[in-house]
Design a protein that fits this description.
Length: 407
Amino acid sequence: MDVTLADIQRAQRTIEGHVLRTPMLPAPKLSALTGAEVFVKYENLQVTNSFKERGARVKLAALSANARGRGVITMSAGNHAQAVAYHAQRLGIPATVVMPVTTPFVKVSATREYGAEVVLDGETITEAQTRAETIAKERNLVWVHPYDDIHVIAGQGTIALEMLEAVGDLDVLVIPIGGGGLISGIAVAAKAMRAELEIIGVEAVLYPSMWNSIHGGHRPLGGATLAEGIAVKNVGHLTLPIVRAMVGDIVLVDEEHIERAVNAYLTLQKTMAEGAGAAGLAAMLAEPARFAGKKVGLVLCGGNIDPRILATIMVRELERADRIVSFRLTIPDRPGILGQIATSLGILGANILEVDHRRLFLDVPAKGARLDVTVETRDGAHAEEILLALSADGFQPVRIEAGAAMD
């Protein structure tokens, strides 16, 4: 391997005092949710809210005076960008970052605030890398790759040293995979310390780049994912052989499970997780039998999520849990009916969130109307109670999918 335990131990000394030693804590509520004994490494508590600070600091600290004077460049969907910008600023190194145009604004803004020159180009990391390579040649800048670099891999591996020092008897580590820098560093350190420890990788099902490389597969790559931090089409030349040799399996997770994991971190752990940061928990939610009864270590590797997206996820989870429900009613078009329905819903304990009243649908009587009403409920049983009551009142209620109420 190009990276060894000794390299990772040196990296740990390099970052000491410059990168936060984040807590590794038991998560009883996540344990109850998943059926495993869960411990979480809170890398979202770093200054830039991501584990990327570790590898960035190690790489920048290794540069010569000449290289520092020339300046550095990288491409990133956000977290590596912020990490390079932050530590370059602290070390007095000029930094340029190329980011895809799809990068959440919160990450773009934070990167600029750390003093980096930001160039927005391309829809994906791959397209951003092409532009970054061009700029690097034109301006003679030093390349700081987000994952395919021995210093970066070693820096990320320091997470495993801290995890196993805190909880030495873990059975399995579940680690998100983008280009493979995080899982490679963790796998090298963890396997050197405890060869029997199982390492499971996680990718978004829309971007199974490492899975394809390992299995010789041809699953399609692309699409809008909440886990943009691991939406990578090209895996690393250095990381691929490490993953092939040391990672037991790769779980592919869909968007619904990523959303559920983000929501679980927020509502159960009271902490922020971006899609990529929650990928490990998403894998446990998607395949609970695989992890049942095991002592599992998760890395909450990033918390840079757009607040608007987070709010949307929370509402969608309430809808999935039947805590927000929409009904379509067919009602007589006469005075007092809306008041009657509102009173009935109040007696039933439902909180009305939205009402849409229409008369011009051709599939209702000329003296009738259609009413779409969205209510907040206690749970699925309460929603069913409301449905039966509205039916008994003669309003012919039909449950409608979230977002369809205005159709």
